[in-house]
Design brief:
The protein is mainly α and 106 residues long. It has one domain. Helices cover 53% and strands 4% of the residues. The protein has six helices and two strands. Strands 1-2 form a two-stranded antiparallel ribbon. A hairpin with a 2-residue loop joins strand 1 and strand 2. Helix 1 packs across helix 6. The longest helix has 17 residues. The structure holds iron/sulfur cluster (2 copies).
Length: 106
Amino acid sequence: MDKYLKALKQNVCSICVDSSEKGACTLNDKETCAVELYFPQIIDVVHKTKAEKLFDLQKELRETICTQCRAQEAGNCYLREDANCSLDRYFPLIVEIIRKVDAGKL
Ligand code: SF4
Ligand code: SF4
């Protein structure tokens, strides 16, 4: 898990709009990062998926993660709609870094 977290910090947090110039997360105590909160489940979905297209994998992620996230109501998420969910914003990059860690490239 540590290697995935390290890769996340180095490759996603570093370019996240919610991070400082040095890549430190700037969310406050009342805000939650969906990537951090659901990272083990996200990794699990990426490992178990049979989807070949990113679009299908994104659908699977939403079905697994968004359904347990309290920000979503009846399939709608105000954070996603405002491009304010880190998981939704950086999902292709997150999938890429998980796969690179698996391949020993990160
Ligand atoms: S919001 Fe999430 S992805 Fe963005 S810097 Fe904070 S921990 Fe990293
Ligand atoms: S898109 Fe919304 S429901 Fe899905 S993980 Fe992000 S904040 Fe939660």
